[in-house]
Design a protein that fits this description.
The complex is a heterodimer of chains A (200) and B (325). Helix content of chain A is 36%, strand content 12%. With 200 residues, chain A is of the alpha+beta class. Chain A starts with a helix and ends with a helix. The relative contact order of chain A is 0.11. Residues 1-13 and 30-45 of chain A have low confidence and may be disordered. Chain B has 325 residues and is an alpha+beta fold. Among the domains of chain B are: 5-50, Uridine Diphospho-n-acetylenolpyruvylglucosamine Reductase, domain 2 (2-Layer Sandwich); 218-322, CO dehydrogenase flavoprotein, C-terminal domain (Enolase-like, domain 1). Chain B has helices at 12-20, 32-37, 72-77, 79-84, 86-93, 98-103, 106-110, 117-120, 162-168, 270-276, 283-291, 305-324, and strands spanning 5-7, 24-26, 45-48, 57-60, 63-67, 172-177, 180-185, 208-214, 223-228, 239-248, 251-260, 267-268. In chain B, the strands form three sheets. In chain B, strands 4-5-8-6-7 form a five-stranded antiparallel sheet. A four-stranded antiparallel sheet of chain B has the order 9-10-11-12. Chain B has a three-stranded parallel sheet with strand order 1-3-2, with helices on one face. In chain B, a hairpin with a 2-residue loop joins β4 (57-60) and β5. In chain B, α5 (86-93) runs antiparallel to α9 (162-168). The radius of gyration of chain B is 19 Å and the shape is globular. The N and C termini of chain B lie far apart (50 Å). The mean pLDDT of chain B is 97. Classes of the chains: A alpha+beta (200), B alpha+beta (325). At the A-B interface, β4, α5 and α6 of A face α2 and α6 of B.
Chain lengths: 200, 325
């Protein structure tokens, strides 16, 4: 169906909800800067660090504000919104990704300190349209309710298994304790990690 | 978060010079980035020290030498650490979530700021954050606060677990600054709050922690870290105890004992140690010695339970160490 150019003109250019949110957030961020602060004026020194990141096997060259976390770069610059922002304080684990093979909380990680890093996010876990065994196990064991913490749980679960700390339910509970699930889906999460560890 | 510049020094000397003129070091960032986001910390210049050559873990004679940039997870998983200094491995594993342990450096762990909620609450009085503004914790919610080493100006506990183990084990640290290098006991890194709680450690401007050295000995292999907290993992200590115990011919020959969660700095219990040497490793001796742990305790409204929990934790930690002795 052809679009009506006049209708398009009347309603303005179409933008996605994400673009609208980003525009709002950028305006808010600017407004939040204290007057006269370096970043609010010209701030060449405080601004713009250029770096390269390999995210899920794809290389990116990016220019970031030193204040941006890896989480913010993933979500807002690379549109990889599978990684969730929960507490933004390192306490909930929703933002867990693997950096150079290790699980970390991406919210407390300044992107500007990670030039050259290799990052894996939930978007890179599925391969060729097939879920990873840990993802399948989460489905089979009901390892989620609302699903908000699930990407972080899965990335942390991959780390937990790789580290060799998925030998018993008690061990999994301890080594997954950096990931909070407010729905309380813990029994399913522990069962899924145990199941996937057994398969791999 | 306030704006800042991030610099990557080309050499250790560059990093030290920058810090001596007011820049802040950043390694794992797990404390600093969090506090910057809360606007409790507002550094204008950060020096990323991760490229400096202070990582790694090695053995020198009987000593275990841990680079200041070694990560908590890396140290805890190291076979030499597990074999020679199990207390360090255990205290690290109890110390944070796996994600944070993969990020946080050993030097940064020792320099982490307090977890007192009023320290982070910008509209509350906190002599540590804003000298002279008062202490909201003294009459506030203080169940997690210290009973030892407190002052009328600050009652916050030091939050590190591995620092408690290092203090128990007589570890030393090497630092490098504008005037060169020096070494001193880890215990001497931490200051009591007194009337200057904003001064938390004894490092001079520009000084960088280079490495931590832990002397070995037969006691250090028979050691346990017991952490009592509101939930079973990923929580700060209400009370913790680090114990290394050497028993020979049915008698305690050597003992090292320090506690966390109760002091404004990691708290060595030398009187308890002295009371235990020469005794049989039995519950009665443990209980008598543990009572010495609460000498000088000044409990607050909500943390009086620590006066009873502290000796009980010490007794149980001694029993656990006795099982591996």
């Amino acid at each position: 169906m052809a679009e009506n150019p006049s209708a398009l003109h009347l309603s303005g250019p179409r933008i996605s909800r994400r673009e609208a949110l980003q525009a709002t957030a950028a305006a808010a961020a600017l407004a939040a800067l204290p007057p006269g602060s370096a970043a609010a004026t010209n701030a060449p020194a405080a601004a713009a660090v250029t770096l390269t990141l390999t995210v899920n096997g794809r290389g990116h060259t990016l220019t970031v504000d030193p204040r941006q976390s890896v989480l913010d770069v993933l979500r807002e610059t690379l549109d990889l919104t599978g990684t969730k922002k929960g507490c933004n304080q390192g306490a909930c684990g929703a933002c867990t990704v693997l950096v150079n093979g290790k699980r970390i909380v991406s919210c407390l990680t300044l992107a500007s300190m990670y030039d050259g890093a290799r990052i894996e996010t939930i978007e890179g876990v599925e391969k060729d349209g097939a879920l990873h065994p840990l993802q399948e196990a989460f489905v089979e064991h009901d390892g989620l309710q609302c699903g908000f913490c699930t990407p972080g749980q899965i990335m942390s679960g991959l780390g937990c298994i790789a580290e060799g700390h998925a030998g018993s339910p008690e061990e999994i509970q301890f080594w997954m304790s950096g990931n909070i699930c407010r729905c309380g889906a813990y029994p399913g999460i522990v069962a899924a990690v145990a199941d996937a560890a057994g398969r791999s | 978060m306030f704006p800042f510049t991030l610099e990557k020094p080309l050499s250790t000397e560059d990093a030290i010079a920058a810090a001596a003129s007011g820049a802040r070091f950043i390694a794992g960032g797990t404390t600093l980035v969090d506090l910057m986001r809360e606007e409790v910390e507002r550094p204008e210049r950060l020096i990323d020290i991760n490229s400096l050559p202070f990582g790694g873990i090695r053995i020198e004679g009987d000593d275990l030498v841990i680079g200041a940039l070694a990560r908590m997870a890396e140290v805890a998983a190291d076979p030499n650490v597990q074999r020679l200094q199990p207390l360090i491995a255990e205290s690290l594993i109890e110390g944070a979530s796996p994600q944070l342990r993969n990020m946080a450096s050993m030097g940064g762990n020792l320099l982490q700021r307090v977890r007192c909620p009023y320290f982070r609450m910008l509209d509350a009085g906190c002599n540590k954050r804003a000298p002279g503004s008062g202490c909201a914790a003294i009459d506030g919610l203080n169940s997690g606060h210290a009973i030892l080493g407190t002052s009328d100006y600050c009652v916050a506990t030091h939050p590190s677990d591995v620092a408690v183990a290092l203090v128990a084990l007589d570890a030393t640290m090497r630092v490098r600054g504008p005037q060169g290098e020096r070494s001193f006991p880890v215990e001497e890194l931490f200051r009591l709050p007194g009337d200057t709680p904003h001064l938390e450690h004894t490092l001079l401007p520009g000084e960088l922690i280079v490495e931590i050295r832990v002397p070995g000995g037969p006691h250090s292999r028979h050691a346990r870290y017991l952490k009592v907290r509101d939930r079973a993992s990923y929580e700060f200590a209400l009370v913790s105890a680090a114990v290394a115990l050497l028993v020979a011919d049915g008698v305690i020959r050597q003992v090292r004992l320090a506690v966390g969660g109760v002091g404004t700095r990691p708290w060595r219990l030398r009187d308890c140690e002295a009371a235990l040497v020469g005794k049989r490793p039995e519950r009665r001796a443990f209980e008598e010695a543990a009572q010495l742990a609460i000498q000088g305790a000044r409990p607050l409204h909500h943390n009086q339970f620590k006066v009873e929990l502290l000796p009980r934790t010490v007794v149980r930690a001694l029993e656990l160490a006795g099982e591996v002795a």
